[in-house]
Amino acid sequence: MKVWMAILIGILCWQSSVWAVCPAWSPARAQEEISRLQQQIKQWDDDYWKEGKSEVEDGVYDQLSARLTQWQRCFGSEPRDVMMPPLNGAVMHPVAHTGVRKMVDKNALSLWMRE
Fold this sequence. Notes:
By secondary structure, the protein is mainly α. Helices cover 59% and strands 0% of the residues. Its EC number is 6.5.1.2.
């Protein structure tokens, strides 16, 4: 029974992506909306990777990224993979590594890294 439920859920999830509704936009409006959303996501990516700031919640970011991909598929545009921008100079990591600051000195850090 569990196997059949898993198969049914898998089919429903797959079908839901196939049945996604495309907006009834003209090609010009579609390009404008896609471009606007691409620019916003690019700004969030730059803020995250270069400044270490997250200006949007993960769930919202994921939802809008999925929407962009769907719109690109609807209007014949090739979805692009999100890549980390090239980094120059010292860049803070987006997630603070607070445990490293607790080391007494470089030797303690070296020992901790060997463990």
